Amino acid sequence: MEFVINHLDLSLFAMLVTLGYAAGSYAERKHYASILRREREQLQFQVMTAEAYFSEGRVKDTFLVAGSVVISIDYFKRLLAMLRNIFGGRVKAYESLVDRARREAILRMKEQATARGAQMVVNLRLETAAIGNAANRRNRIGSIEVLAYGTAVALHPQ
Amino acid sequence: MIVTNVNTVPGKNILEHFGIVQGSTVRAKHVGRDIMASLKNLVGGELKGYTELLQDAREEATKRMVEQARQLGANAVVNVRYATSSVAQGAAELFAYGTAVRVE
After folding, report:
1. Which of A96, A156, B63, B101 has the fewest CB atoms within 10 Å distance of its CB?
2. Please, what are the domains in chain B?
3. Does the structure's ipTM exceed the value 0.90?
4. How many other C-beta atoms lie within 10 A of the C-beta of residue A45?
5. Considering only the top CATH level, what class is A2-155?
6. Window 88-127 of A, Cβ < 8 Å to B
7. B52-63 residue pLDDT tens
């Protein structure tokens, strides 16, 4: 107890790291489970990055759909990434962050397209931006935004 | 108004081109959201406040672009692209641009 009081800053730091590790990995596991479940549900829905051409009279409706998410990294992983900066190499902490953000954005776009009665999305585009406090500081990516957008196409039943 | 991000409106022919239309908006977040976000930065996860903020801003930018197209007499905007840039500490610019056309 005496040690904790004498080294308050150190204890606070250790507490934040532990909190970041526990809450961060729990949130990530939960998010991945949700992503996998929804990806299976949306498996039949076609999305492509190419443009598509439709024969005369097939298309009922077209509209733009977009899905976006802002996601943040936890304290523990930020620390890991900072250490990684010294030695170089794969920064796994950030890899899983951008992977989750992209898949979530695409899922939201698909969900919006399905809700509005489309059967497919063509010409998918992905956009990534670093935002928030750390956006202007080069070496500290705090949170990223991913936007997925494309043209939803509703077809006449054949 | 039809908005797409492919070169044409699928299933329709383009009759007339009106050139580029654009819409943009610069948004800043309020302090409450900022504090929540910095707390969320410790534990990780989605920043819902920011997601909503950016979605609203993007809708606004799209609306401005569509309004510009309507003034030109177009009934569709094709090849729409979105871009994001942070212009200052804590503020982001959302930008949408495309080609205004008239389809049959």
Report:
1. A156
2. 2-103 (3.30.110.70)
3. no
4. 15
5. alpha beta
6. 104, 122-123, 125, 127
7. 888 999 999 999
